[in-house]
């Protein structure tokens, strides 16, 4: 062992390796806690381990194990022998929160195989997703209404918080209509409407997705300012709008297809129209951030795409013909905006 490795080992020990190795246990704990509504159970009042066991029918040993895992991740706090959710857990893991990840976790449990080592190994070895028998995720959604609804609600579940953040980082007050391309539930369009009272919005997606988005538009009382439009991003004309938003869309597709979409928007937008990409972007070397690298792997496991770097996003927009490219972080997690105009 060389001197540098020896010094690192002596200084830091093996904690970081254990952090990586035990990552899957924390994932499983999160999935299980959500399935038994663990954080909802504790949200109404702190409980002892005995009280939790009685209400969940779990053994004391299991309850202690789960509570320790959740507390170690900053999801539970313990005072005088009673456990309660931390603000982090209340904000993202309780059903009543507008930014709850419950939908994401429910979707993950439905695709258990995607969390197995065998699936990861097969996808990495083949260089593409092995989910749905090799059928593309979005083709599968078109054929499977039940999974389409679970997936769309999962995306809404994880999108509401980032959507509320990016709308505070850019000014769309001078625009008339936002087209949310592949907009799913309409979470981003709805947040934009909440931010800019004069704006209109169209959620553009497959017919079965638009039916779900219609329900969310009604739920958020935006029926007078938002509508859905059925279509295929590859073959259908876009409805008229002067802002095109792609949130977590470019990362689903190879770079040549991303360029196709960018050019399609350039051709469809009026002069002065704006394109917005909302994505988690890699650093220039593609060595991080850590969650972006994991999200990139997740794209290999689920889709045809990858996370972009800032330079890749810039090149795509400029090659499509856009000018004045700006790229900046939204100050929410690892999310960024890349935006440009048709001059």
TrEMBL record:
SUPFAM superfamilies: S-adenosyl-L-methionine-dependent methyltransferases, Winged helix' DNA-binding domain. It comes from the Bacteria. Residues 130-323 form the O-methyltransferase C-terminal domain. The keyword Transferase applies. GO terms for molecular function: methyltransferase activity. The keyword Transferase applies. Residues 19-94 form the O-methyltransferase dimerisation domain. Keywords: Methyltransferase, S-adenosyl-L-methionine, Transferase. PANTHER family: O-METHYLTRANSFERASE CICE (PTHR43712:SF2), PUTATIVE (AFU_ORTHOLOGUE AFUA_4G14580)-RELATED (PTHR43712). This is Methyltransferase.
